[in-house]
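Lab notebook page, bench 4
Experiment: in silico fold of construct C2
Operator: M.H.
Input chain length: 130 residues
Purpose: comparison with the prior construct
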Amino acid sequence: MPTKSLYKISIKSLNPSQCRQRSSSSSAPKTLRDQKRAELLKGKRATSGTGSPPRVIVLFGLSYSVDLNLLKEDLLGLLSPKRNGIEFPAVASSEYKLRATILKAPYGDLSACMEMAKCLELLVYQAVLY
């Protein structure tokens, strides 16, 4: 019985404003988590899908004998198997929900390679192994 009396005393000793303060302070971290989660989801939705800018994929050949055209054709065929023979560096893949622009970096032109490296989102390099 003494626990019941203590329980009743502790409940009666709190006034309504103290109850509101306790409930709001306990929900503040949850509100922050929900806001952060909503921001992350909004960011993910903005960077994927058909409304987002295309991902820039730059192909670098590490030697002169590397044929980047074959690699580019394979990537374009993988992303968009229903192509009609028109050569265009941008492709929209409905299967992967991705838009991509595939560029080839010129071998031996360091300044062009550096400019392409500034805007790329995915780097693909190929070397010839003997």
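Observations: Residues 72 and 99 are 15 Å apart (CA to CA). Confidence is low (pLDDT under 50) at residues 1-11.
Next step: discuss at group meeting.
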